[in-house]
Write a structure and sequence with these properties.
globular; alpha/beta; 16 helices; 8-stranded mixed β-sheet; 19 strands; 473 residues; 4-stranded parallel β-sheet
């Protein structure tokens, strides 16, 4: 017989003992978008929760516990990359097809552990991995190794989606010998599902396997084999699932308390997804203007529903599309600028990191600022906005609002709720101490301030992983 532990039977955490105190010369607050001067952040060494944030003078003797002097740095919440692929590495090194079909699961997993550490050292204390791309459910085991007080390897908080879901024939890898067979040597980049019954089954299987999120390919280059003879047809992204299939998957996931992220680029696909209440839309680059909306601005207003996060993934388009004529990069720029024009704030930072090098995740933030976004809003999107995106369904709705209002009571202890249930993304009492500090100046050199080289301090869960620019693990 199986027994399920309920919220009422979870053991209470023991009272905290020792503390750490971070002295911050400057502190970014994502709620107010302000830089606060001379702040002291008191952290429980036991739970890793922030106990207090106060202004400081010159009397440091009044602080109990270990004092960490970062008065020469700017402190802020750890960054969140909401779209990574730890089981991929830069396509400039090895093509996607060769990684998926020629690198073993063992090699790809070892690479993923390296990517995890590199990401943490760059100041990203949480990520959402949106698909292992042919590595099955390996991310579930990687999450186990990254989590808890006895984590085997250093890395960020890890929210994973196991295998993305796509229909027959739409995704790769595609064999050059057996055209009608799915995958190559039994390897498929996604879990294949067709029809509402199979779609529901795939979602249930992945949730049962332990997925934090469900990832769906709602449109893709279905006819890519035609590229040799018809470039535009082969490159065109078309709808993969019909409305009933998408509805079945999204409803099934939500009924199980799991959020859904969807790869979507086309205007018509995105309209459908917004009506279905999907939780995040990745890319959204090809918002083709119509005669009544020449800039796409009115269409972008539809994202401002408080429900669906827009994740532009500018970095992957910039990295793969620059200098190749009119590409998805140009379309992504136009879409993002339309979002800025309507002052859309329902944005999260995710670069599709993995197609380009892990550890350079901050490129997404830099591109946003270069394209005209207020750097303070970008920092919010990359911190608190990241948590609002990746957090579990239990933080949403009225129940989630009530829970958030009680955070200051210090009940969200990771030893009680778990690593992926703690609140992060802000420096506030009751939030977990996922903190970073930079030597840079956001006002005069934003790119430099967010670069991995300028991140001289990294703390996750109250534990220091990088200090004075040097990794401690």
């Amino acid at each position: 017989m199986q027994f399920t532990m309920t919220a009422n039977t979870v053991p209470e955490a023991q009272p905290t003992a020792a503390t750490k105190v971070i002295l911050a010369g400057k502190l970014f607050d994502p709620y107010t978008l302000q830089i606060l001067e001379n702040q002291a952040i008191t952290i429980s060494s036991d739970s890793g929760l922030i106990l207090e944030v106060t202004s400081i003078g010159n009397d440091f003797a009044s602080f109990d516990g270990e004092v960490i002097d970062l008065r020469h740095l700017t402190v802020l919440p750890g960054f969140v990359d909401t779209h990574v692929h730890f089981f991929l590495h830069a396509y400039a090194e090895t093509s996607w097809d060769d990684q998926v079909t020629k690198e073993s699961i063992a090699e790809r997993t070892i690479r993923a552990t390296v990517h995890a550490k590199r990401t943490l050292m760059a100041g990203f204390t949480a990520v959402r991995d949106l698909g292992t791309e042919g590595a099955g459910d390996a991310d579930i085991s990687l999450r186990k190794c990254l989590s808890g007080p006895g984590a085997l390897i250093p890395g960020p908080r890890y929210f994973c989606a196991t295998q993305a879901i796509a229909p027959t024939g739409s995704y790769g890898p595609k064999s050059s010998l057996h055209m009608s067979k799915e995958g190559v040597d039994g390897v498929t980049g996604t879990e294949v599902a067709d029809g509402t019954d199979e779609c529901i089954k795939a979602v249930r299987r992945q949730i049962g396997a332990g997925a934090d999120w469900i990832k769906i390919y709602a449109d893709y280059r279905f006819r890519s084999r035609l590229s040799e003879v018809s470039h535009r047809v082969g490159a065109a992204s078309v709808a993969t699932f019909n409305h009933q299939e998408l509805s079945a998957m999204i409803t099934t996931a939500h009924d199980c308390g799991v959020k859904v992220a969807v790869h979507a680029t086309n205007r018509s696909t995105i309209m459908n997804l917004l009506s279905l209440g999907v939780d995040s839309i990745e890319h959204a680059c090809d918002i083709v203007p119509d005669s009544e909306d020449a800039t796409g601005v009115e269409f972008m207003r539809k994202f401002d529903n408080g429900k669906t996060k827009y994740v532009p993934t500018l970095a992957v388009f910039y990295t793969l599309g620059q200098g190749k004529g009119e590409t998805s990069w140009d379309h992504a720029v136009n879409t993002f600028k339309a979002a800025l024009e309507v002052d859309l704030d329902n944005i999260a930072c995710g670069g599709d990191t993995g197609a380009f090098a892990h550890g350079t995740n901050a490129l997404e933030l830099s591109l946003m600022v270069r394209l005209g976004a207020d750097w303070r809003k970008v920092l919010r999107w990359a911190t608190l906005g990241g948590w609002e995106c990746v957090r579990s369904q239990m933080w949403e709705g009225k129940a989630g609002q009530a829970r958030l209002a009680q955070v200051g009571n210090l009940k969200e202890d990771p030893r009680v709720v778990g690593d992926n249930e703690v609140p992060f993304g802000a420096v506030k009492r009751g939030f977990i101490a996922d903190l970073i500090a930079t030597t840079g100046d956001f006002v005069t050199d934003f790119d430099g301030a967010v670069s991995a080289e300028s991140i001289h301090f990294v703390m996750k869960g109250g534990r220091i992983y990088k200090r004075d620019g040097l990794a401690l693990v």
